[in-house]
Amino acid sequence: GQNIDQPTEMTATEGAIVQINCTYQTSGFNGLFWYQQHAGEAPTFLSYNVLDGLEEKGRFSSFLSRSKGYSYLLLKELQMKDSASYLCAASRMDSNYQLIWGAGTKLIIKP
Amino acid sequence: GAGVSQTPSNKVTEKGKYVELRCDPISGHTALYWYRQSLGQGPEFLIYFQGTGAADDSGLPNDRFFAVRPEGSVSTLKIQRTERGDSAVYLCASSPAGSGNTDTQYFGPGTRLTVL
Fold first, then answer.
1. pLDDT tens, position by position, B12-67
2. Residue A81: helix, strand or coil by DSSP?
3. Which of A87, B69, B87, B100 has the fewest CB within 10 Å, making it most exposed?
């Protein structure tokens, strides 16, 4: 089957660190995307992990464990503008375009 | 502009009417995707174009939905006899090639369709 789970909502404080988890059960798994989506706007690409491990891009890092079917997005030094939904999506080896999407995690940043 | 554009940004229509939603992909991107997104949900795949042809239309919910991309660039999603359940944000995305390795998809701002 194809399934992706992520928490519905999280709250964090400005300046802090938050980790958003994503677990997947995807046959023929290839890689894991993270997108950021502000309310009323388009999803924007953050990262794509194919190999195990942590990839860092400035304040945002993404981690993948293929053996555990698990990924997380780590956001450091949180800013108010980071308030958004964060979507994870799995790609499959038998399709270079069909993604399995999670429902998104709404992140609320408080001062 | 450099990004994917979609028009209109908002569309309000009455039940039973016909609507057309337009997508202008990033120049040079051969792959184009249509999705539908409801509040609090991830994008739901509708159709994928590689060039002018619909390579996969398995996500179209029924025969009221149809999409074209006659010249391999701009695409139009057409919905006949709209129903209230069609209300959603319709997202378009494009990617460079859509073949070989998985491409990153770049999304447009979406069209918010409301069927009264």
1. 999 999 999 999 999 999 999 999 999 889 999 999 999 898 889 999 999 999 99
2. helix
3. B100
Mutation site, B50, B102, B111, interface A, largest A CB count within 10 A: B102
- Taking the C-alpha atoms of residue B78 and residue B20, their distance in angstroms, rounded to an integer, is 5
DSSP state of A16: S
Q: Which helix (H) or strand (E) holds A71?
A: strand A70-75
CB A56 within 8 A of CB A76: no
Q: Does B43 touch chain A (CB under 8 A)?
A: yes
Q: Which chain B residues have a beta carbon less than 8 Å from that of A104?
A: 40-42
